[in-house]
Amino acid sequence: MKVETVVQLLPEDCGLQHSIVRLHNSNIDSKRLDRERFFRREAVVICNPQNGSRVLRYAMGTPGGISITKRAVALDYDAVDVLGIRFKTDVDLEIRRASTFEVYQWFWNHPDLGIRLSTRLGVMGGILGVMGFLVGLTPFLHL
User: Fold this and answer.
1) E strand or H helix at 40, and its extent?
2) Which of 30, 98, 109, 139 could form a Cys-Cys staple with 102, CB 3.0–4.6 A?
3) Where are the transmembrane segments (predicted)?
């Protein structure tokens, strides 16, 4: 999806805890039937092709209070800063579904230390668990 305008997200939706992007309701499918539209709370990547920057956010519809057109999105200040754009100006952004690898990569390098640390500990715990399982199987493989 191409984006032409970015408006400021409401203060109650901002922050690292939420990490959402608000889209026009015609671009959101809450019933998960139409793959042409984004699903609610689906991870999406917002790319700025002019400078190569990108940010991961969760797609949400518009509850009201913000005027968002079909080619506009509402982002928080942190996302606008990372993308190198300004509010209420003409932009050329692309939004697409995030792959599983992109989600793990985003959380591996997340700006919030707590999220970054828990992701890295979880991945390392999974790797060590698989290694321990394989070491536990070695006595049975020599029979």
Assistant:
1) none
2) 98
3) 121-141
Q: What is the CATH number of the domain that holds 66?
A: 2.40.40.20
Using CA atoms, how far residue 140 sits from 57, 92, 143, in Å, is 46, 59, 6
pLDDT digits (tens, 9 = 90+) for 26-57: 999 888 888 889 999 999 999 999 999 999 99
Give residue-wise pLDDT tens across range 54-74: 999 999 998 877 788 899 999
| Beta-carbon contacts of residue 13 (< 8 Å; ≥ 6 apart) | 20, 22, 60, 74, 76
CB 96, CB 42: distance < 8 Å: no
Measured in whole angstroms, the distance separating CA 25 from the mean position of its chain's CA atoms is 18
Structural domain count of the chain: 2
CA atoms within 13 A on the CB side of 29: 9
**Alpha carbons within 13 A on the beta-carbon side of 135:** 6
Residue 107 lies in a domain: no
Rg (CA), the chain: 19
Residue 13: give the domain boundaries: 2-102
